[in-house]
Design a protein that fits this description.
The structure holds two protein chains of two kinds. Chain A has helices at residues 2-5, 15-26, 29-47, 53-59, 64-94, 103-114, 118-150, 156-173, 178-192, 218-236, 256-277, 283-298, 311-334, 340-351, 360-363, 365-386, 390-394, 401-420, 423-441, 447-469, 476-479, 481-510; strands at residues 195-196, 203-204. By secondary structure, chain A is mostly helical. Chain A has one domain (15-238, 248-510). In chain A, a hairpin with a 6-residue loop joins β1 (195-196) and β2. By secondary structure, chain B is mostly helical. Chain B has two domains: 4-61; 76-154, no CATH class. Chain B has helices spanning 4-24, 39-61, 76-116, 123-143, and strands at residues 30-31, 34-35. In chain B, α3 packs across α4. In chain B, 32% of the residues are buried. The chains are: A mainly alpha, B mainly alpha. At the A-B interface, α9, α10, α18, α19 and α20 of A face α1, β2, α2, α3 and α4 of B.
């Protein structure tokens, strides 16, 4: 274990050294290209209603093979936080949230646009996103390394509990029904058992097909469940483009009063967003709602909320950006995805043979620090993209879905095929696309399936390794101190949500 | 059943779980100190059947763990028609990839998908399909070196 601590920038070296090392890597031409592409694509999908960052990240997973693990992760992370920037554009100009986390921005942002103040709202949203994104990544820089160091004492039993905890936490918070989410997470782990058994080498559930010997590839399954299913669901909804407010470059200057009123909400939103980001679940969405409620409570003009209050744009837009950085803390430090986009990031790491977890900082310091440093660069790129080019991005919403969706479908097919140059993977993607479409119709969340597929192998291997190490003494699973803490968290994750729901229900009934 | 729409998928899930569990019984579960390849699948099968059964029962009793789903929309058949059309096109498209190659099958798939999604006339869908195929070929085959299927009927 002591050898692990000697890894570059993992233990005794300072965080600034690590960050400097990461910055050098992030400024490498290929990684710089990756962050620009990620931020650009993220802004576009943030602007476009109906296509979310998780689906897009899944679609572009095959591209990470060309960029390498570090470049790939930088690009995927860029899509995630870039979408938070872009989401505000359609909320303000069209009153349709481009991204779920920008729903709250519609309330006051669009009201400002109706009063001819769209430019100020867009500028404050972009500046707030930049400031809060930087606050969030500062928090990520400070919190992730010590957490990863603390987790270095984990053995197979702890990895088993941490995998189980990850499944339980995301299942509890990603959908409406816990049972449904748990069912989907179990399905994901079941999918992970298909193929060659990693210990005995015997094929399982392959039904005699050599294609199934290798199991289900993460990329086609995720592209199907998110990409194809999202397109099929969009086909079922409205297929029209939206009317938008026009914004000129000279309108993009907020006045002194706007800046004065936005300053504190932006910083408050940044802190609120980062803290909410550390909680499992759809953090970006939750953080924007929490921030809106906080700003309304602290405002001297609460009556203005809903009628174009600038604080109602500044706080939530800051919060959803900081939340993405917060969500990266458990992923980079523990290998635990607390939100659907981080589940895709986790899968992206694993297809490159990178095992996320406490050892990531020691074994892949270039990736660990490169991703963190790239977010600083990404925030600057996004500010440049989202201020002067806001009109260009807004005009994307004028392109009809009948043009965009078929092109995205072709990209899905190429992406799935490119994984191993096999049409079989395209069939897998199509099958999971149809499954994902019906899952959405019946309110079964696809994210726990992906998480189960990603964590399934780790869960099974750590369970079997633990049983061998503990010589069959299953009590050893909960006699170790770290295991005990993780079990308590796992039990709380399972028991607390229904108790909270029941108490809220009882309170509602009383009132 | 209070929520009939959910009964079918939940029942299918329960049957699937049972089938998975039965298939898992052909693998050894091993011993406590040397677990076999059948241990995890059997545990998963039991959990899956238990969860789907509990979902089925809570639905039956009318006490769902979450709030009720949004009310049915007025035009369900219209909402299903376009996705189903796209799925049918995709099935033909994926089936045609190897024999007819990427270019021809993608052109046809794009053309019909765009038409079904509401792109009027012939000109626009043809331009969209041709342009996308040309750009995809340039980007993926010529620049990124992805060996997209050329097509068995062309002799390769």
């Amino acid at each position: 274990m002591s050898l692990c601590r000697l890894g570059p920038f993992g233990g005794d070296e300072g965080m600034l050294d690590g960050l400097w090392f990461g910055l050098q890597g992030a400024l490498d031409l290929r990684n710089l290209f990756a962050v620009v592409i990620g931020c650009f694509v993220g802004t576009v999908v943030g602007v476009l209603p109906g296509i979310g960052p998780t689906g897009t990240m899944a679609l572009l997973l095959p591209l990470t093979f060309a960029l390498g693990p570090t470049g790939g992760m930088i690009m995927l992370a860029g899509i995630w936080y870039g979408a938070q920037y872009g989401g505000s554009t359609t909320s303000i100009l069209v009153n349709v949230p481009g991204e779920a986390a920008s729903v709250v921005t519609c309330l006051d942002g669009h009201q400002m646009a109706r009063k001819g103040r769209a430019g100020a709202a867009l500028a404050i949203a972009a500046i707030g996103s930049f400031v809060a994104g930087t606050i969030g990544v500062l928090g990520l820089t400070l919190f992730a390394p010590p957490l990863a160091n603390a987790a270095l004492n984990f053995g197979p039993p702890e990895f088993f509990w941490i995998g189980l905890l990850g499944l339980l936490l995301l299942s509890n918070l990603s959908g409406r029904s816990t049972t449904k989410a748990l069912l989907m997470a179990t399905l994901g782990v079941m999918l992970a058992t298909v193929g060659m058994d990693p210990i005995s080498g015997r094929p399982r559930f392959s039904m005699g097909s050599s294609s199934l010997f290798g199991g289900f590839e993460f990329v086609p399954v995720t592209m199907g469940l998110f990409g194809v299913a999202e397109i099929l669901s969009s086909c079922a909804e409205r297929l029209k483009s939206w009317e938008i407010f026009k914004v000129r470059f000279r309108d993009l200057y907020p006045n002194r009063e706007d800046l004065r009123r936005s300053l504190v909400p932006i910083f408050r939103g940044g802190v609120v967003g980062f803290l909410v980001g550390l909680i499992p679940g759809p953090a970006a969405v939750m953080s924007s709602f929490v921030s809106y409620a906080v700003e309304r409570k602290f405002s001297r003009h609460p009556e203005e909320f809903g009628h174009g209050a600038i604080e109602g744009v500044a706080g939530p837009e800051a919060a959803n950006n900081a939340a993405t950085a917060g969500g990266l803390v458990p992923l980079l430090a523990l290998g635990l995805p607390f939100a659907p986009p981080t589940a895709v990031l986790l899968g992206g790491l694993m297809i490159h043979g990178v095992v996320p977890g406490p050892l990531l900082m020691q074994q892949h310091p270039d990736l660990f620090w490169g991703v963190i440093a790239s977010i600083y660069i990404g925030n600057v790129i996004l500010l440049i993209l989202n201020l002067p080019l806001v009109g260009v991005f807004a005009s994307i919403t004028r392109v009809r879905p009948a043009i965009v969706l078929p092109i995205v479908l072709v990209l899905c097919v190429i992406g799935a095929y490119a994984v191993s140059n096999s049409v079989y993977d395209v069939w897998v993607m199509l099958a999971f696309g149809v499954l994902g479409f019906f899952m959405r119709r019946f309110e079964f969340e696809p994210a726990p399936v992906v998480l189960g597929l990603v964590l399934g192998r780790m869960l099974e291997n750590s369970l079997r390794q633990s049983m061998v190490i503990l010589e069959g003494n299953i009590w050893g699973f909960w006699s170790r101190p770290i295991s005990m803490v993780l079990i308590i968290f796992a039990v709380l994750a399972l028991v607390l949500p229904p108790i909270i729901r029941l108490s809220v229900f009882a309170r509602q009934k009383k009132t | 059943m209070r929520n009939r729409a959910e009964a079918v998928p939940t029942l299918l899930a329960a049957i699937f779980g049972l089938g998975y569990f039965l298939a898992a019984t052909q693998y050894s579960i091993g011993k406590l100190d040397s677990p076999g390849p059948g241990l995890m699948p059997r545990l998963l099968g039991i959990v899956f059947v238990f969860l789907s059964a509990s979902l089925l029962i809570t639905n039956w009793l009318g006490r769902r763990s979450g709030p009720p789903p949004s009310p049915a929309h007025e035009d369900q058949s219209r909402k299903l028609r376009t996705p189903l059309q796209v799925v049918v096109i995709l099935i033909f498209y994926v089936g045609a990839l190897q024999p007819f190659g990427f270019a021809l099958s993608t052109f046809l798939a794009l053309f019909f998908t765009a038409r079904f999604m509401g792109l009027e006339g012939w000109k626009k869908p043809i331009i969209l399909s041709f342009g996308t195929v040309a750009l995809a070929y340039l980007l993926f085959v010529l620049i990124l070196d992805v060996p997209l299927p050329v097509g068995a009927i062309w002799g390769r």
